[in-house]
Records
---
Amino acid sequence: MTTHRQLPITVYSPGSAMRQPSQLLADLFRDVCRGRGLAWRLAVRDISAQYRQAALGLLWALILPLANTAVWLFLNGSGIVQISETPLPYAVYVFTGTMLWAIFMDAMNAPLQQATAAKAMLAKINFPREALVMSGILQTLFNGGIKIALLLVVLLFFGIYPSWPLLLFPIGVASLILAGTAFGLLLTPVGLLYTDIGKGLPLVLQFLMYLTPVVFPMPTSGWALTLFSWNPLTPLILTARDWLTGLPGDLLGPFLLVNAILLVLLLFMGIVFRLAMPMLIERMGS
Amino acid sequence: MPKRAHNNDDVLVRVEGVGKKFCRDLKKSLWYGVKDIAAELLPGEREIERHATLRRGEFWAVDDVSFELRRGECLGLIGRNGAGKTTLLKMLNGLIKPDKGRIEMRGRVGALIALGAGFNPILTGRENIYVNGSVLGLTKREIDGKLEQIVEFSGIPEFIDAPVQSYSSGMTVRLGFAVASTLSPDVLILDEILSVGDSAFQLKCLNRLGELMLTGTASIMVTHQLHNIERHSNSAVVLVDGCVAFSGLTHAAIDFYHRQTGPDGFPGEFVYPSNSLFRIKHVVKQHPPRAGGSSSLTVAYDAERPVGRCHISYVFKVSGVEIFRSTTKTLGDSPFNLDRNGTFDIVFPAGLKALPSSSISFSLWDEDFSQVFVWVKDMPLSTQNNDRSPRIVVRSGYQNGA
């Protein structure tokens, strides 16, 4: 006669998991912990596969923001677009801006991209799906690391030397990734059902970039100022850029407020992502 | 419900009145998806009722299925394509939620469904072992410890450092199985696993399955190769249009399934090409009248127009093992002509005697084997099956698809 070890019991029933919120949160955190190893493994898989079949390798992490910078330097230099005075030399302003924006954009695209790429796996295997989101964050961090390394070199070239606010810069990057992930997760459930989201996202992001002090400085007056000031990304980009270039940052209050809201949003979207998964998988086919 | 004398702790899978609805229309299904997600986040008062009600365009893909599975048992799930087998497995595996009923799974659940899930074709076999292992819930240390065993089990050690895109599909499946087979789940879900790979691979699968069953793993098996179910399962469930049409001992379930497709409840699976105008009316078996004579079958058929010149291909099995396979062409017969209706005989070479466990599969072809009119699978030849036992009554709503 065998002795029975106490086996965990899993119950599946039609009722919503929202009815037991504490259980739901416990399950969420358990799966986040359980999924760490898998997230790492998936990130390593994607990064090595991505660069193994590209002759330019790691350079691809830089090419897009570099091209973007070049375009804006040309537009400004030739006088096609008149850009008002920036607090830093314009080249530094636009280069740091596009690099930081690229990190945010990577983070925002990641959840939907990861989930779409893993459709076949999602439809057949039960694994902690939070790992997909975490793997996206790891990949954004890796690609972001390359960008930041280049940024630091270029800043030296422009005579901007590291100073103490640089120590805070990782927090700035983290908050950009936090914002990207939270917004990205917001779009993922519907984006997995309707491809319209994935198609429209680049357009929206492009527009959003012009409403954030990435290539333009903060406007000084008018409705543009109102839009820029209400844009939650403004304090994130400005503070990250300030810390990178050795300034203490003058939007610290809004920066902290936005981050606090984003943390709550991330938790909420994590729950939505988790609850929506069975309905999404149902419609993924086998 | 009467309780059996078993220890209740032994039940690893308990499925009670489970149902799942699907929508055939894609646009509607997507919109329902959005609504379902909203309802999951903000469950209303009458949530359970709403789940159990069909909306426009929906149907029950699985309806009111119940069963229990104990330690060491193997349950076969039998049914045609679209009968709801895979949907049921997905619910058991926690991939999708039931709309009705309740599922209770005890212990670690392992699924041999998507072999090689997460494989990236550009990476090497070795790298992909780590990816696939992680997806299946193994830690890096566990994979490190089992790496050699996995490589050896896959049978392709010489290719392990080549990118997986250079593998044949069979090799990929072998590697995937090698990883998956290191798991020792309490409940194992197998979906058509045995239909991939070559014979040597299938033997490995079967042996591994046997090992797991001895250690007390409960398994649920879906396959169209019914002899595998017959060999491993203690009991089986026949699903017809999402409902349990039969549940009981394996051989009875297989018999029931065969009766669904044959003419007038005749055992054996009768398969016709879509929009075929050819139908078999009945089959009469003739056993050798005296020693040395040949067994034969007389098949009566009906067709819309003259069938033309035909050949027959057949396989003779005893206890599921193939004894003889041939075609009338190989045996040197010239094609025979079939009119709009009538009968034809299949005469087996002398020496092929019908034992109680013999069965035959045959297919009727045009003279150059380019068109098949009917394929009859695994029709028992034994005498005791000749007397037609009464058909088991199927719940209403099911129409014989043949």
---
Amino acid sequence: MDLISDRGNRITVEELNTSNLLKHAREQADRFGLDDILVVDVDSHHYEMEHLDEVLPFVENDVLKQLLMSNRAKGRGSLLPSETSFQDMGGRITRYPLRHSEKTGPGKHRDVQLGNRWMDALGVDYACLFPTQMLHVGLTTQPDLENNLCWAYNRWLTEKILPETDDRFFSMLCLPFNDPDASLRHVETFGGRKGVKGFCVTAIRTLPVHHNSYMKVYRAIEERGLALSFHSGTNSAEPLFKSLNRFATVHALGFPMYNILHMANWVTNALGERFPKLPVIWIEAGLAWIPFLMQRLDHEYMLRTSEYPGLRKPPSDYMRDMYYSSQPMEVTDMIQLESTFRMINAETQLLYASDYPHWDFDVPSSVLNLPFLSERAKHNILGGNAARLFDLKPRTAAQKKNLELHS
Amino acid sequence: MPETCVAKSDDLKDGDRVIVRIGRDEVGVFRHNGSLRAYSNYCLHAGGPACEGLIIAKVEERILPDKTSDGLYFSKDENHFVCPWHGYEYDLKTGECVGNRKLKLRSYEVIERGGDIIVVS
């Protein structure tokens, strides 16, 4: 296979094989004895748009189904607003341009086979599977389209993909959040299905998460003992970001910004008081934004307490009650990172996430190599916290023993 | 110093590379613009296969005397190899990580003798 290099030159590389690409990760897993440690990855992805021919038949509305399938059949247009995105850095991240070259065998769905390859290489026992392009579904100006795409994807995932994964994959399903009534219907329909551990607000949107119309949705998720997650992302069309001229900057700012927006509204409007048993998880924004927002909100709260009538404690205390995925972990200043871990009670609130196969994925050694973490904290962050949150069982006796020892 | 024959000279043409195991290390051997270079294949970031990805010229931005930008260009004399896991770029001539040149991959001496390419470890 050839990759395009500078000035049109082509560089020959082997066709993609995930197991080969990640063989150094497997070496790390062996060195750290990861097969004896329960590892739960709370944020992994697949490329659902590669399987639209399987997904679109699940669209409910006949008119939208015809529009989508016709569009698809002729290979033009796109289903969702898209942005100029150079996730693969001009082919530097080779698994992007080479993805179609990877061979899979008969039997399980291609996404399951590919998923098992990277999970086995990284030493991951269970992974929460999120889509990729569907993370932008909130940007559509057509709520009925968002509703139908979420419905179709969630049916396909729960009926065709998750049943083939031997329970190693689970999901928090995307909600059509532009439509609270439709979101509630999704929770009521899919909330009891196997492998559904919660629901996800695709966070690339600016709707007020504290609006009264969403309370029935949160209540329904809480009543079912499921989790609510906010999965962030990038959006170069965001008005605030229109001056950003590099994808790196859009990426650096976008992920934390959407989570900051929704977290600020969530905490300020005391949703933690209204739904005390609802686990809330903040995904893929890194960690550096959390101490910033804790300090910022606490400062305002102390000066302007009258604007926080629903709170019984400072905003940062509510933020410490919530969960955070670990990726992409900013590791350039260990003292700052250690402080962040202390501020978020990482030992009980931090959940390992790889984000694989996306370009800035983290291997489990990103946690294991941290010099300031206790063994107990490492085990909890890698899998113990998520196992308790999602009721996941250790897969081996050694994992069970380690989990009991460090819990 | 142990010597390991990693390829026949004729089999490693300009622009080619080979990945070999030498002791406990995995080493990428490049022939590029007539020179032979060898570096550890373990990326300093997360341990990815640093030598196995794209080889591409350094991206430069030309700043004119009036401090305005004249846009992006590929360098004519600096080439990088890129770790395919996350995009860490390394200078092909030195093995330095171009984002922080204090970081440098372990390098090996490479000699060509009697039609063999030999890495000295």
